[in-house]
Design brief:
9 helices, Spore Coat Polysaccharide Biosynthesis Protein SpsA, Chain A, two-stranded antiparallel ribbon, 284 residues, nine-stranded mixed beta sheet, 24% strand, globular
């Protein structure tokens, strides 16, 4: 299998915890500073050398993403030039200069679940090349996971797949899929949301994976809540071959609900923006 040049980023869910705002815009178009969450993931892919990104969206979200990554808004540029503020357009040009971004709609005939966006993108992938998948509500601060996945694949050419994990506080293991390892660094199986006193580890799975095309053979049945789960396919594949587990070199935070979005956005501002000292003063 060739090293990945393509990544799938999935934002095709209902985002019901964010209603009413997500009836109008996709969840990953919510801002981090002056950029949407989705742009952070795209930039993580680009920094790792990914050449094409496939965004899988809802029917309503697809035109919004297409507009964001392709609309040059020349009328705004002309106005900025007239006002002597053309430097403000540089952020737009940065987006327009990204490598190829294809936006597709999730296949509506598929069951709901995290594997459905990957299956929807199957025709955009090569049979002889591994690929990256990302859940659009996961952000990583520090070194990006996509680069870690690709470097791990170069070290483990026998890999059927690779997944990223992060150690979490033992008191919250009941909120995550918890990983059980074998052979030191390979996936044995995943326990979904175990009781705190029964968890086999505190190593949590989240939405960063490298797959080989073989994964599509394992997306063959629905699981919990009649949804088609990516981790179910990964667990099945681990029975047939090596699925390696890499710990993130950064810090993963989810934006999957308003509270965690706020915390992740706050972290972004404290790390990245010029007004970090004012924020610290405000929150005491």
């Amino acid at each position: 299998m060739k090293t990945p040049t393509k990544a799938i980023i999935a934002d095709a869910g209902f985002a019901s915890r964010y209603l009413p705002i997500t009836k109008t815009i996709p969840k990953s178009m919510l801002p981090f500073g002056n950029r949407p969450i989705m742009q952070l993931l795209v930039e993580e892919c680009i920094e790792a050398g990914i050449e094409e990104i496939i965004i899988v969206a809802t029917a309503e979200g697809r035109p919004i993403y297409e507009d964001y990554f392709n609309n040059s808004v020349n009328h705004i540029r002309k106005q900025l030039i007239a006002q002597g503020k053309e430097d403000r357009y540089e952020a737009v040009q940065h987006v327009l200069d990204f490598p190829k971004i294809t936006v597709i709609e999730q296949d509506p005939s598929l069951p709901y679940g995290t594997a459905a966006p990957i299956i929807s993108a199957r025709d955009y992938l090569s049979d002889d090349e591994a690929f990256i998948t990302m859940q659009a509500d996961d952000v990583v601060f520090g070194p990006g996971d996509v680069k870690t996945l690709i470097e791990s694949y170069e070290k483990h050419p026998d890999a059927k797949g690779i997944m990223i994990a992060q150690e979490v506080d033992p008191s919250v293991v009941n909120k995550y899929g918890i990983i059980v390892l074998k052979n030191g660094d390979q996936l044995d199986y995943i326990v979904e949301k175990p009781a705190v006193d029964a968890a086999p580890s505190n190593l949590a799975s989240y939405g960063r994976f490298l797959h080989t095309p073989e994964i599509f053979k394992h997306f063959d049945e629905t699981g919990l809540d009649d949804e088609l789960w990516q981790v179910d396919g990964v667990t099945k594949m681990a029975k047939d071959g090596a699925v390696y587990v890499e710990k993130t070199r950064g810090q993963w935070m989810t934006t999957g609900d308003p509270k965690n979005y706020f915390l992740a956005h706050l972290r972004f501002n404290l790390d990245s923006e010029d007004w970090r000292d004012e924020i610290r003063e405000l929150v005491g």
